[in-house]
Write a structure and sequence with these properties.
alpha/beta, 7 strands, Rossmann fold
Amino acid sequence: MQDVIAGYAADAAELINRYEALSTADLLSPVIDLLPRKGRVLDLGAGTGRDAAWFAANDFQVLAVEPVAGFRDAGARLHPSPRIDWLDDRLPDLAAVRKRGGAFDLVLLSGVWQHLDSDQRKRAMPVIATLLASSGILVVSVRHGPGAPNRPCFEGNAEEAISLAEAAGLRLVRRRYVASIQERNRRVGVTWTWLAFTSSA
């Protein structure tokens, strides 16, 4: 993960504007009808806080977890809100999040899963599952296609993610394959599978 974080840190100045130009509602459209109407959100890999700000504006309390200092600083500056709490932590272990305790009604991994290798994914999923509240929702975007050379990506496999989630006691409620909403990603063939899981039986 350190190579990934270093790559994002090096490109942060250029990426901030790109990320902020995207619409959270458009990005989450494959799963937006499944999102809770209120509660606590854990935004893993929160980037510039674009999505955290959208949730905060809709009366959610958000823990925005982001290991890249440049993104955290930009997020706090661009999206000041008493409903957003920023935290420096990282997958797969989320030690700082777990130390805080508490459970979340929604856990969001948007554009993150591809940066974990197979062993890290196996370690991360049970940790994430323990952070979900009863009947909580986990949303994961699985990337297909090339990534930036300086930000290592591992090929996305929806079946692997589903298997790991089910082994952690979660149940699949949505699987949707879509094109990237970013034009430059579409040009190089990037697509996504959006997955949603619930912690309820």
